[in-house]
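Entry:
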Amino acid sequence: MASGKLYLLALVFLAAADKSATTNALNPPAFGLRGVNHEKDAREDSSVESKTDSDDDSLKVNPSGGGGVIIGTRISMVSLDYYGKQTWGVDDCNRARYLKDRDTQNWKQPPKNNGRMTTLHTAGNGIGIWGVGTDNKIYRYATNKKEDGWIRQNGNLNQISVTYGEETLYGIWKGNIYVANKNDDYNWNKMSSTYNTMDYVEVSGDGRKVYAISEDGRFFKRNNGNWIWQMDAPQNMKQVSTDHYGKILYAVDEDENLFSCDNSVWRREDGPELKHVSVEGGAKEVMGVNYKNDVYAARVVNGRTVEWKFIMNATHTDEI
């Protein structure tokens, strides 16, 4: 009799276990490896995202947990106008920022900063800021009409470069170079092929010189309608910036080495390791960012940089 009851209890236990296993297979618990609660993480990530998306000028984060400094975001790339008066950048939350105060390195969000940018280019006139969003759409921000915010423009790009008065735009889209002119309502036209996949394009402020970098790091110059490989330029190049006339260039390679070029003569620069560089149109200052998103700046004299300075910690800070 006792053995019969034990047998029935065993059957009930096995049925319950089988039902539990089936339920778990159809509805797996919200825990991943090592007991991580991904639902909780998702809620926390959502709250962080909402803070990032806010129009508040800085992220209110204090690692020490007490009062003191409000630490904001770090600058990941920079772009200067002709006179160095409009210095813009993109932070590591894909927000456009401008350098409001050089003494304190206060990088502020502009009014109506409605957009997420991966890169931007400051026109030499300091009025038009052209950006490429995280959605690859093109946007323009007018510094003389800040209340309008970022205005959607025609086309899609991966990267953009602009002439001084915004008469002509150049851009990269899926490995090809495109050009758009103001008198044609900025309709984009694909340029002739170089038989190379292109990663970067740069136009001088006066629009007379155009340079490009291929996927494999080769440097090209536009000449008589053709892209000419500049064999004497540094190899493995990643990014380039030019002055207004296309005579003074600064470039960085994949190994963060810094180079300058004055009238087609390239030289290795003594300076910080950088991933991105920008020289103002007037060729009097150059700024750069390294892989830690620290910003450096230097004066330019006769085509050479002097007095490289580390600019704080590339972090926007405000006292509470």
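The chain has two helices and 25 strands.
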